[in-house]
UniProtKB/TrEMBL annotation:
It is found in: Cytoplasm; Cell membrane. This is GTPase Era. Residues 45-49 are annotated as: G2. The gene is era. Monomer. Residues 66-69 are annotated as: G3.
Amino acid sequence: MTGGTPPPGHRAGFACFIGRPNVGKSTLMNALVGTKVAITSSRPQTTRRAIRGIVHRPDAQLVVVDTPGLHKPRTLLGERLDSLVRSTLTEVDAIGFCVPADEPVGPGDRFIARELAGVKRTPVVAILTKTDKATPEQIAQQLLAVGELGDFADIVPCSAVDGFQVGLVGDLLIAHLPEGHPLYPEGDLTDEPEQTLVAELIREASLEGVRDELPHSIAVVVDEMAPREGRDDLIDVYAHLYVERDSQKGIIIGHKGSRLRDVGARARKQIEALLGTKVFLDLRIKVLKDWQRDPKQLRRLGFYD
Ligand SMILES: Nc1nc2c(ncn2[C@@H]2O[C@H](COP(=O)(O)OP(=O)(O)OP(=O)(O)O)[C@@H](O)[C@H]2O)c(=O)[nH]1
């Protein structure tokens, strides 16, 4: 990957998407990369880690860092997300600022636009997401409204669902990357360790149908993942799902354990698809009181300073 002259005009570098929760950042990144690497759901703030997807093209390699939603800090966890987001913004070569085409610009978008104005060195491409849900008039108005939010290198409407201009979003981000060799070998779609992806899939499965504050109280840790002895077609996965209170544990487990069984079955199917083998999933649930506010527990669950 290193040494020698890069192919003429080849660009390589990093970009991230930023925007309010639920504006479609993960979905757009998946559409760009062409494979599911980050989790998506209809619940806000499901992405907690910077998960990278890599777009390989003959002329460029774009490494996409998917950032969590930018929030005004509410809990210790919230504060950490914010510092993670801010350091991400200064480290990338280009930022995609996502605003949905089908909702008026609001205080959340303005808050982020102000943050972005402070990151002077990184060019920002404003992206109007979900154009399939908006009328042409709405899109036209939104382009004007977003243009007034800041000083953007470009403003581009797109839809990750019907594929409208997703390639153009890639082109516009790639235009800001420095010339250079590919940073990762071709074929790598993500550099997240498999164990982290597996934990995210379990978390995603556990979120189906739960309400309100519960999503933010769930964390999943994969304790062990290894092929079953003497078998090359079966992987054993041992994982813990952590919640903050006994009442939440009850909700996850469900009547006579029925909900937890469903979560396990859904997660197992996803993990099998990811790993390409059969999976035995041992999923246990534990209460870690108020883990979101406890620095020691946060570290234990993988949220580092
Ligand atoms: N119709 C339509 N829906 C979309 C589009 N992109 C995303 N969505 C939906 O919008 C919801 C949120 O999408 P995500 O990709 O999870 O949003 P996000 O910004 O990554 O959300 P957080 O992880 O909470 O920050 C999901 O229900 C998606 O299916 C789009 O282009 N069109």
